[in-house]
Amino acid sequence: MSPDVKNILLAGVGGQGTLLASEILSETLMLAGFDVKKSEVHGMSQRGGSVTSHVRYGTKVYSPLIPDGQVDVLFGFELLETYRYLPTLRAGGAVVVNDLKVMPATVAMGTENYPVDIPGKICSVCADAKIVDGLDLALKAGNARTVNTVLLGALSQRMEIGEELWLAGLKKMVPERFLKENLAAFQLGRQA
Amino acid sequence: MSQAILSGNEAFARGAFEAGVRVASAYPGTPSTEILENISQYQEIDSNWAPNEKVSLEVAIGASFGGARAMVAMKHVGLNVAADPLMTLSYIGVRGGLALVVCDDPEMHSSQNEQDSRHYARLAKAPMLEPADSAEALAFTRLAFELSEQFDTPVLLRSNTRISHGKSIVTLGERVSGLPEPKIERNPGKFVMLPANARKRHPLVEQRLLDLKTWGCNHEINRIEEGEGEVGVITAGIAYQYAKEVLPKAHILKLGMVYPLPEQLIRDFAARCKTLYVIEELDPFIEEQVKAMGIDVKGKEIFPICGEFSPSRVAAALGLPQPQGVAVPSEPLPNRPPNMCPGCSHRGVFYALKRLGAFVTGDIGCYTLGALPPLSAMDTCVCMGAGISSATGMAKALGEAERFKVVGVMGDSTFLHSGITSLMDMAYSGTPATAIILDNRITAMTGRQDNPGSGHTLAGLETLPVNLEAICRAIGIRNVQVVDPYDLDRTQQVIDEEMRRPEPSVVIARRSCMLDRHGRGVRSTPLFVKTEACTACKACLKIGCPAIEWRTDEGGGKGHAYVNQALCVGCGLCRQVCKFDAFGVGHES
Predict the structure, then answer these.
(1) ipTM
(2) Of B273, B253, B249, nearest to B263 (Cα)?
(3) A71: CATH
(4) Structural domain total, chain A
(5) Contact B312 A110 (CB under 8 A)
(6) Which of residues 1-60 of A touch B (CB under 8 A)?
(7) B179-190 residue pLDDT tens
(8) Are B429 and B394 in contact (CB under 8 A)?
(9) Which residue in B167, B339, B569 has the most chain A C-beta atoms within 10 A of its own C-beta, making it the best mutation to test that interface?
(10) How many CB atoms lie within 10 A of CB B462?
(11) Which of B326, B344, B372 should be substituted to probe chain A, the one whose Cβ sees the most A Cβ atoms within 10 Å?
(12) CA separation for the pair B55, B35 (Å, rounded)
């Protein structure tokens, strides 16, 4: 592996819009001059199933998939899905996670239990973990649907990419009529 | 020349545009679907969804006969359907260049098998190119059309889930100009595959393979990357990326054309390496051919045949040390399998089938999820079209006592893809089974594409939708009933009636998909649970609706159902299964 390649693993639930977030992230990385690869699975897994997206960047990236145990930032949109992929985090890696529970069918039906205190468990193995109340900040930004942009703002604090590039990435990917609230959401995420 | 970050599928589409393609056709199938969706954004290309992959390839063949460049795209199992025209097209060759993109799905993220489509190149005796990222997907697509016309052959492009749905950076080019204008040109000796003509074409096909082999030894599409030491790797496609990641110092022979193989180039490369690996996903396709050249290579004795590769899987196979992630105390986690959406029109039908104790021969689509708990109401699933034909076979095999339980189920898109002939057989043979067509008006699983029953073309233009009832009657089904699957009692009653009938019959369960692009899925006011009326019988949980949750009571009460207002679309199915009238319409007050 090229020594300078960085790995971000996005984890969430199908339908949460993780794909758009990973698009904005990879556009921003391309604008920053990196070689970028991103990989995810569509189809069956979108029907409310567990969804991941691998984003890798550096001088030259070969594999689109992150080697096990090499995730630099685990970027989670839902607590259980983030916890599920926690073992992929490298020692010293960071976690940015949305403080949200989405019940899997088996939990909703009462046949399985949602694990307790996931934030605590994440913090116990990761010194650099940020739990973000995405919905609360999105509402402050003026639209509940800007949660993922809030989370990108929080993520941006853990990456060495200039703010202006993030803003350029957002402007390129977010439709004009939603831009204002998304820029506000991004700033709230950065300050979180 | 601008740069863009494109998925493999966007890059195949861009390649088609730049290559001057005029006609494109496909049937949706993960992970290939976005190729035609992206091609449709180029006004210069006439693109349409075909009812199935065979039709799409035949449309492209016709365009090629007319002198235009044409492209088709399909998933690996789609090529099984299109295999018939492909085999003879190989003898005919092309007039306008023709490329076929086939997308494999190692790991079966969204498929019923993980067949390796490279075998089709060998079977069809046609060249196959395999890109390793989006830049190559674009470049190889352009090249495919040049090769196709230069060697008078269809060209296969092989992708997979990681190439098609992975994004990487590409440089965009211009659309080629100066291609000949399509016009009629008769050439029966080439275009009419009567035995006498085909016998003359076959030796040309064999010579073409030899010529392509030589071409492959001298073209940069197959390249050697010099490394250090004595380890060499022969690899192609996505596996190349993993090889580079895991063995950065090895000598690499990267094959861009995986069939036919550049024999002399492989011999020369092998002579320089003391240890030689073939790193390829799925079958030992390259490995066996290299071994047949008398070259000693290590392949599937260490690398897995099943499932997809990753850097970690390749490293593990090579016995290399693997970095460990953070240590997380292990605890069993609830799985999160995919589920039918809230308000899905399939739910009521499967609930009814379960209550009727039917043996359901199923098919491929969103409704295959009907096999999962709590509905657990699908008993077989093979391939597109088999839902109805295997119902016929089972009913033939079973005795009077059980025959009536057999119900074949398939969606509207699948019925139009390959279910009509299945139903024709049931009707003509007078087999007393029941077929249910789940008519949600679109091809939902792959992302809500229009099909011939939808009434819209890919370009969004209105067109005459196929009349399913009329088709069923025209092919000899006398008993055709249409039900609304939101009306649970009536749906169950009609299915029961038709199951008992000692003749072939069809029930069409018609209700638009909630995610229909034309806005035909009707959202109503969400429901709520009157907590005091809920007896905790959990009957509503048996429909498997994602909007219904179970809430335990503080202090150890019996608990109660709860409707997630953000998810509920008000289909009212839960209200119909509740015997205690515990579901109300409208928000809790």
Answers:
(1) 0.94
(2) B253
(3) 3.40.920.10
(4) 1
(5) no
(6) 1-2, 13-14, 23, 26-27, 30, 35-50
(7) 999 999 999 999
(8) no
(9) B167
(10) 10
(11) B326
(12) 17
